Amino acid sequence: MANMIAFAPNEFGGSSFNHLGFSAPAANGGLEAPTRHVHAANGAVPAGARAFVAARVSRIVLRREPTPSEALAWTSLIARQSSVVLGRAELALRLLDRPEMAGLDARARLLRAYNAVFDRYDAVASQDHGYWLRQLENEPLADLVLRHFVPLYEAGYRSGPCAAPADARKPFFLARDSESVPLIFTVGANGHLYLFRRTPFGRWSQTDLSAALPRPAKAVVQCLDVRQGADGNISIALAVAARQDAPNSTIYTACGLPNWMDEAGWYAAFCALTPRPDTPAGAIASRIAFGPLQPGAAPLVLLTASVNGAHDTWCFNAAAPLTMMSHLRLPAEARQVRGYVAGSYRLPGLWTLYDEGGERALAFNSFPDQCGWAVNIDYTALPRRAASVHLAPGSVPNVPDVFVAGDSIVVYRGGHSVPQPVAHIGGASWYGASATTRANTWLIPTARVGCICCRALWARHGACRIRWRPSWSAPR
User: N- or C-end of the chain: fewer Cβ atoms within 10 A?
Assistant: First the structure.
């Protein structure tokens, strides 16, 4: 990801954009902090790029989109300047003189002018903000902007990265928009949830989705799951804490979000989220995960959390926020549970992988039904040392394909209790990543801790079958 455009609200509300120079993605899949900003000081700049700069400065300073007449006038103002950064500075000063900005105090005016010149969007002020606030006592804001900010920017000065790089210790999730362009959801080093989206300008935008939640500056994402259904709609479940030293979790879920939304649409969607009222008091979440998103089936979510030091698991319907969470119901004969996945097999229920009589067993048990209906299935011929289970939408409606990994990988298709072999990889377990396209479902297991095996990449649907490839190791 070479050049990125960062979009997020700042501490005064609204939203803005930031054009950043990012280094190439790290080997572990994370994004490194911005290192260098490349700009054309006196070169030819396309008119469309100037209009984009004008709109971005409007979002930073005014917290709104420009009207067509404003966009035309402000684009002309930027075009008359000798450099793009000088155009941003002049436009920012002009916008701050507008009557609608009269209510801003000195600190807010300084921050918006600084962000406009340095192309910042962050909710946190720059590291040198206190210094410039003291200088404002002796110099007017216009002098600070034109005599200090602009030359510093042109000299390559940056007070610090304003975009929180992705935290390589946490997973990222991949979906696709309506044009099959990747949408990447990841948690930053500041604990916020970010969306990376390819823009029409050939760059990437970065949207701080956590900033739309209550108390955005202190919302820390504890766990997250993002899934995309066959219709392209996206479902998200996340647990957040107010801050690191106050870990009690608040649960948010959203189902059926359209994948054609732009940055503003995603931000508005998160503004509309409300916390689930039935989250257990004092719960500290450690895992949240959707079952497979099957047509006609409820989007079930498993929540694992500790309450007063005791770990427990709940299941709930993400599409019905007013329904109560239910405690996890495990098979009575289960001595040691190895894993569990929520989903629907005709009825909502739970797949449980457990130890029974020295052997591994896998069973599906539906949740209690008001009409007394029940579905209970025991799977046979599990791989030796079966360690994990993964569900994927199958060809039979409301019945998923069940993948089990151990000394080999097998799949139980369309409700069959006899497995089909997929691959022979010793010690395999599902890494937990999957991405669905119109034709194929890609499943990524790992054969050992800290190593993602590309040879375990397999296309589940369609006639195309990809051969196993040599693995590559990801840094721990």
Answer: C
Radius of gyration of the chain (CA): 25
- What is the Cα–Cα distance from 115 to 204, expressed in whole angstroms? 19
Tell me the pLDDT tens digit for each residue of 268-301.
899 999 998 888 888 889 889 888 787 777 888 8
b/e per residue 178-189 (b: at least 16 CB within 10 A): eeeeebbbbbbb
How far is it, in rounded angstroms, from Cα 93 to Cα 453?
53
Q: What is the mean pLDDT of the chain?
A: 75
CA distance 19 to 460: 39
Q: Which of 162, 212, 210, 168 is nearest to 189 (CA)?
A: 168
* Dihedral sign from CA coordinates of 414, 419, 424, 426: positive
Nearest CA to 56 out of 32, 75, 76, 37 is that of 75
Place of tokens 């793009």: 84
- Residues 463 and 460: their CA atoms lie apart, in Å, by 9
Measured distance CA(277)–CA(252) in Å, rounded = 10
* pLDDT per position as a tens digit, 227-238: 998 889 999 999
Nearest to 275 by CA among 234, 318, 306: 318
8 A C-beta contact, residue 74 and residue 66: yes
CA-based max dimension of the chain: 80
* Count of C-beta atoms within a 10 Å radius of residue 145: 24
Cβ proximity of 209 and 221 under 8 Å = no
How are strands ordered across the β-sheet holding 234-243? 220-228, 234-243, 246-257
**Of 111, 119, 61, which Cα lies nearest the Cα of 85?**
119
Can you tell me the distance from the alpha carbon of 252 to that of 238, in angstroms, rounded to the nearest whole number? 5
H or E stretch covering 77: helix 68-79
Q: What is d(CA 20, CA 34) in angstroms, rounded to the nearest whole number?
A: 6
- 3-class SS string, 394-421: CCCCCCCEEEEECCCEEEECCCCCCCEE
> What's the rounded Cα separation, in Å, for the pair 399 and 294?
8
Give percent of the chain above pLDDT 70: 73
pLDDT of 411-444, one tens digit each? 998 878 788 888 877 666 555 444 333 333 344 4
pLDDT band of residue 19 (cuts 50, 70, 90) is: very low
Distance between CA atoms of residues 75 and 169, nearest Å = 42
The token duo for 432 is 């937990």
SS3 280: coil
pLDDT at 86: 94
How does pLDDT run across 56-111, given as a tens digit for each residue?
Answer: 888 888 877 788 888 899 999 999 999 999 999 999 999 999 998 998 899 989 98
338/101 Cα distance (integer angstroms): 59
